[in-house]
Amino acid sequence: MFGLAPTSSGLPSAQLSLYQAKLQQARREAAQAQAQVQSLEAQTESARQQAAQAQNEVRSLEGKGAPRSDTQTTLNSQGETTGRLLNTQA
């Protein structure tokens, strides 16, 4: 009968340890990538909401039309505009 070869050389154990270390590193990197994806998705959703609000504001302002001015600009005899001076301080 054939016997089993001894496994006391340590080589398979070293290879297994290296494999396990690489596996753990790959799992950590995958978890970090997943967390980054979730963060970017949240940022994307926030940006979409801001864009939608801005578009709604644009539509609202467009629906109201341009504001009307009750005062008309007139020119004096020298071609200068005349009208009310509301505030002289800057």
Strand content: under 5%
Shape: rod-shaped
Following the backbone from N to C, one meets helices and strands in this order, namely: HEE
Q: What integer is the average pLDDT?
A: 81
Number of strands: 2
Total DSSP helices: 1
Q: What structural class results from the helix and strand content?
A: mainly alpha
Strand order of the largest sheet: 1-2
Describe the structure.
The chain has 90 residues and is mostly helical. It has a domain at 36-62. 60% of the residues lie in helices and 4% in strands. The protein has one helix and two strands. Strands 1-2 form a two-stranded antiparallel sheet. A hairpin with a 5-residue loop joins strand 1 (74-75) and strand 2. The model has no long low-confidence stretch (mean pLDDT 81).
Please describe the structure with a list of short key phrases separated by commas or semicolons.
90 residues; two-stranded antiparallel ribbon; 2 strands; mainly alpha; 1 helix
Compact summary:
Helix content is 60%, strand content 4%. The protein is mainly α and 90 residues long.
Layout of helices and strands:
Elements: H1 11-64, E1 74-75, E2 81-82
Antiparallel strand pairs: 1-2
